[in-house]
Amino acid sequence: MSKRSKSSHRWLSRQRRDPFARRAASEGQVSRAHFKLEQLDRRFRLLRPGLRVLELGAAPGGWTRYLEDRLQGPRQGGLLVCVDPRPVTAGADTVVIEAAYGEAEADERLAAILGEAGVDLVLSDMAPNMSGNRTTDQARAMHLADLALDAACRWLNPGGAMAVKLFQGAGVDAWMAEVRKHFDKARLVKPEASRSESREVYAVAQGFVPETEG
Ligand SMILES: C[S@@+](CC[C@H](N)C(=O)[O-])C[C@H]1O[C@@H](n2cnc3c(N)ncnc32)[C@H](O)[C@@H]1O
Description:
Elements: H1 3-17, H2 19-26, H3 33-44, E1 52-56, H4 62-70, E2 79-83, E3 95-97, H5 104-114, E4 119-124, H6 134-155, E5 156-167, H7 172-182, E6 183-189, E7 200-208
Parallel strand pairs: 1-2, 1-4, 2-3, 4-5
Antiparallel strand pairs: 5-7, 6-7
The protein binds S-adenosylmethionine (SAM).
S-adenosylmethionine binds next to helix 4.
């Protein structure tokens, strides 16, 4: 058996054993990632109809589907903007920017869409392409976390919230200390749907306090 088919065999048998992957398939969800956001939302009450949400790292669209369901109803000025260089499965009311956050194209399009209105919630499930080198991968993951925090500081309205994927390792403590300078409260959590063998965790920060000028 080739190396590639061995690893896809491992992936398949893990999917079959994984209760959240089975639930995602039986409920017709885009991906099992859906359940992670659902668990964060239930615990921290992140979502309600009418919110303005910026979602970074949205492809293939598991979180997007959940967000569309939760933001439904009288939209009353609500908005969902998704950013990812890969294609995102999204409904007609969702704005998809097919570009990498941090590049000029994504920035210009976001500025044109959001204008002065900002958002109430920034979500980031961004993850780098893993090289297998732990030091390199951790540095790339922390760079994406920095981009997400920059997005929150730029686009969040006062009192807003963010939830950002991180990988436990070098840089996380310093990053959390930076987050606490901008939010009333911040915690690191691991949703039940996040695989136990993965270093993946989420930082949930609430009560954004914008920097005052001067
Ligand atoms: C774990 S997947 C996201 C899964 C998604 N939340 C879902 O529920 O389907 C990570 C995504 O981060 C995206 N990503 C990586 N760097 C990015 C960047 N700079 N800007 C936007 N998306 C990025 C990748 O393209 C990938 O689609």
